[in-house]
Write a structure and sequence with these properties.
Layout: E1 7-14, H1 17-34, H2 38-58, E2 65-73, E3 76-83, H3 106-113, E4 114-122, E5 125-133
Antiparallel strand pairs: 1-2, 2-3, 3-5, 4-5
């Protein structure tokens, strides 16, 4: 059984471009509160921005809430992202072999920076969990 997290920070943002803009200041607060090293901050910010941007642009759930929760654990961070968009399991998707000039790199970046990626669909919500080093 896992122990208590060292710290937890959560927020809800709308699945809109304005919501995506709210993500940066929230991550700034989180990184300052958790006192993350620069490498950990970069990885967390990149992964959260990729996931939230994909929800906003591709999930077909404009304006519905995206719930974010990051837990600081000894030696790791766990980020949980939940949305009401179309089902999409990134653990089963393959990054394209040939990438367009812009975009299409999100899955590869998640796989690069996350120690573990889990997905489940629960009560009409996508529930994605990323475990990252800290």
């Amino acid at each position: 059984m896992a122990g208590e997290p060292l710290a937890v920070l959560s927020c809800r943002i709308p699945a809109t471009e304005a919501g995506l803009a709210e993500l940066g200041p929230w991550v700034d607060t989180l990184c300052a509160r958790f006192r993350l090293a620069a490498e950990s901050e970069y990885a967390l910010r990149l992964c959260l921005e990729e996931v939230v941007a994909n929800i906003v642009m591709h999930a077909g759930a404009a304006g519905t809430p995206i719930a974010l929760c990051v837990r600081l654990e000894p030696g790791s961070m766990t980020a949980r992202i939940e949305d009401e968009g179309a089902p999409f399991d990134p653990t089963r998707a393959q990054p394209p072999d040939i990438l367009p000039k812009e975009g299409g790199r999100g899955l590869g970046l998640l796989q690069c920076y996350a120690r573990a990626i889990t997905y489940r669909r629960d009560a009409g919500r996508n529930c994605l969990t990323l475990t990252l080093a800290r």
